[in-house]
Amino acid sequence: MTGRLNKNGKYCLDMMLKWSWRFLVGTALLFVFYVLTQIFLFTSFSIPSDSMCPLLQPGDNVLVNKCYAGARLFSLEDAIDHKPLHIRRMPGTSDILHNDVVIFNFPYPERWDSIGFDVMLYYAKRCIALPGDTLEIKNGHYRVSGYGGSLGNIESQDELARIMSTEQGVQWLIKQNCYYAYPFDSLLNWNIKELGPLYIPRAGDQIHLEHSSVVLYRQLIEWEQGAKLTEQKGCYQLGGNEITNYTFQKNYYFMGGDKTENSRDSRYWGLLPEEYIVGKVWRIWKSIDKSTGTTRWERIWKKIG
Questions:
Q1: Which of 15, 33, 181, 281 could form a disulfide with 101 if both were Cys (CB 3.0 to 4.6 A apart)?
Q2: Where residue 152 sits, what CATH number does that domain have?
Q3: Which one of the listed residues 18, 20, 44, 51 is annotated catalytic?
Q4: Which residues cross the membrane (predicted)?
């Protein structure tokens, strides 16, 4: 009797160890699969504000396709410590196109005249202009030279134009600190009603340095070179070396929110480096009404774009 019990007990112990090992291995594999999926394929983000309404609403949780533009690889430790960051991108399945809704790291987390990186600060906006485009805003409406389609939320742009059609409306926007626009230069005097033409740089483009080009692209040049661009007696110096022309090393984008009267987008802070793009918004997988806490079932699995 004792021998049989010992044998049965040993058998049970062996089975427990065997299944425990299988459980641990299975859990580890699932965790590795989850991490790899988050890095290379899809990730999830929660929409906190109404700047992309009505397409995206506060409380929406979206799946972001990283394969579209290509997954990014960088040192998370360097990003957290705010050290110089080298971002490499895997090959993507497609280029970012006009009107794509994308998630990106906000490039000006500390100050709007200097590009930075906050690994935890993300925005969702619509791509209005691509590298190589020339953008203008006319009466609050986006225009890209050579592009015949509509850009952004036309109904919202119409409403913004209506607001700006009266002096009272303009003064209201000024009081809200959302009328004057990038680059906030008194000579250009751009605003969200009339802006541009603004050329969106792509890698390999060369510009001649003068007042307007330096005002528009200073932070991009300083970010690419890690050095200050200064002016002295009409001459420009980059890191102490005099230059007259500059060749861009990176691609840039102009991003806009669908709710144009209430969106902190490229009209205010400027251009987005391609390296900061996480991916394209694909679908809404969860949506919670923040005022009631109830699930908005009609929005579940809604495709974006």
A1: 281
A2: 2.10.109.10
A3: 51
A4: 21-45
Two structure tokens written together for 184: 């906030």
Distances (CA, A) of 256 to 72, 128, 163, 208, 215: 23, 6, 18, 27, 21
Asked if residues 101 and 55 have their Cβ atoms less than 8 Å apart, the reply is yes
Q: Are residues 148 and 186 in the same domain?
A: yes
What token pair was written down for 188? 């250009």
How many Å apart are CA 244 and CA 238, to the nearest integer? 10
Contact 265, 215 (CB under 8 A): no
Residue 174 is assigned to a structural domain of this protein = yes
Closest among 279, 272, 282 to 252, alpha carbons compared: 272
pLDDT tens, position by position, 70-127: 888 888 888 888 888 888 888 888 899 999 999 999 999 988 889 999 999 999 999 9
Alpha-carbon distance of 145 to 255, in angstroms, equals 16
Active site residue 51: yes
Is 10 marked active-site?
A: no
Q: Do 211 and 279 have their domain in common? A: no
The widest CA-to-CA distance across the chain, in whole angstroms, is: 102
> Residue 164: exposed, middle, or buried by beta-carbon count in 10 A (0-12, 13-18, 19+)?
buried
pLDDT per residue as tens digits for the range 176-222 = 999 999 999 999 999 999 999 999 999 999 999 999 999 999 999 99
Give the range of the structural domain holding residue 236, as residue numbers without chain letter. 206-247
Is the same domain home to 231 and 273? no
Which position has the token pair 């203008």? Answer: 136
CA distances from 234 to 45, 49, 185 (A): 47, 44, 18
Q: Is residue 25 part of a domain?
A: no
